[in-house]
Design brief:
This protein is α+β, with helices and mostly antiparallel strands. The chain is built from eleven helices and twelve strands. The longest helix is centred in the last third of the chain and has 24 residues.
Length: about 400
């Protein structure tokens, strides 16, 4: 086994039969079906989604898998193979936003959001198992939300589009769990296609599936999970969002998406250089990262996949210096991997820990991985988990 395959694609899979059998053991009858929704890694475009900008995520083979049966008696029962504890039983009429229900808040929030939108969801029995690493910036929460939403959509014959499912899942996380995330994670989990990266316009949610055949180009995209846990509910994410909104107001636009990149210098001059330049830094990052998404799109369209490497590294510098959401471990991944010959690297996700992505020649993957691991050991950090990101399919019945 090569160094870059420590956490393999096969290890990322959870058997539908296994989850179904566990459901039967828990509840005493077979489930109506089994569904799966993936985590995601974001190639480029960070903190741009809630600014109605552009992002380019791809779905991972790591999924949340749910065995589910509908109930019509107003009871929701949820259980996770990954969290110690008994079945959590809730009355759907009593679901209360921001009630700090732990992991169960994610599926419960989806039921609440569906009902709040007028859908007559009467309850369900749910058993979940997930291989999406938690706290790694790979959207484990969105996978839980989307798989629950998809299962209930089918079981209650709601006939929702993938866009509608993603928006309901986002509402569950925003209004019920209390994390003010954008819609990228849920859209990626619901709508990605295998072998493609998803170009998403977060204003109108229009999508373009962009071919992303790294293996065919002799390349690999490595995910390096630093194992530094992040928690977006701790206020730092919300503070960045508030700062972006303050910048938009000061510039007279509804969202930073409306600030053209060519006009960024003049826009920055119109912002007050106070509070360590906080708002100016946030605006600079968002507007320039939207531009980086378009640059990556143009490079992929031109067939220059290797050309996106320096754009990734440039994006990391912006996340580190302007948005200030990196950490020593993430910075070390970028430094060590690029020093070992990687084409480019950057942190991905909400930051304050989590994961980085590294674009490298497939022939260099082991050397890059070795360099990162040795750098972590030398710095006294816990060993990172490294695995290839294979562009995979979005949510579906399995």
């Amino acid at each position: 086994m090569s160094a870059a395959e420590e956490f393999t694609v096969s290890a990322a899979e959870v058997s539908a039969a296994e989850v179904s059998a566990a459901f039967t053991a828990l509840y005493g009858y077979e489930p109506a079906g089994v569904w799966a929704a993936p985590g995601r890694v974001n190639l480029i475009g960070e903190y741009t989604d809630f600014n109605e900008g552009f992002v380019m995520p791809l779905a991972l083979p790591h999924t949340a898998v749910a065995a589910v049966t509908r109930r019509d008696d107003g009871i929701l029962r949820v259980h996770s193979a990954d969290v110690a504890g008994p079945v959590v039983e809730l009355a759907v009429d009593s679901l209360t936003p921001l009630s700090d229900g732990g992991w169960a808040a994610y599926p419960a929030g989806v039921v609440w959001a569906l009902r709040d939108a007028g859908h007559a969801v009467g309850g369900a029995d749910v058993h979940l198992a997930s291989t999406v690493p938690t706290g790694a910036g790979l959207s484990s929460s969105a996978a839980l939300e989307v798989v629950t939403a998809l299962a209930l959509d089918e079981l209650y014959e709601l006939d929702l589009t993938r866009r509608e499912l993603a928006l309901l899942a986002q509402r569950a996380e925003n209004a019920f769990v209390g994390v003010p995330c954008g819609v990228m994670d849920q859209m990626a989990s619901a709508a990605c296609e295998a072998g493609h990266v998803l170009h998403l316009d977060c204003r109108d949610l229009s999508v373009r599936q962009v071919p992303f055949d790294l293996a065919g180009e002799g390349l690999v995209l490595l995910v390096v999970d630093t194992r530094v846990k992040h928690a977006l509910g701790d206020g730092a994410y919300a503070e960045r969002r508030a700062g972006c909104e303050a910048g938009a107001r000061a510039l007279g636009v509804t969202h930073l998406r409306d600030v053209p990149f060519a006009e960024l210098p003049s826009a920055l001059d119109r912002l007050p250089d106070t509070d360590d330049g906080r708002v100016r830094r946030y605006v600079r990052h968002v507007v320039s990262d939207d531009h980086r998404v378009e640059r990556v799109m143009a490079l992929l369209d031109a067939g220059d996949v290797r050309g996106i490497g320096p754009v990734l590294t440039e994006g990391h510098v912006s996340l580190r210096d302007d948005l200030r959401i990196s950490c020593a471990e993430l910075d070390l991944v970028v430094e060590a991997s690029c020093g070992a010959g990687a084409l480019g690297a950057r942190m991905t996700g909400g930051g304050f820990g989590g994961s980085a992505v590294v674009l490298a020649e497939a022939a260099d993957a082991d050397a890059v991985t070795k360099s990162v691991r040795e750098a972590f050991a030398g710095a006294g950090f816990a060993a990172p988990r490294v695995f290839p990101a294979v562009a995979s399919a979005g949510a579906g019945r399995v």
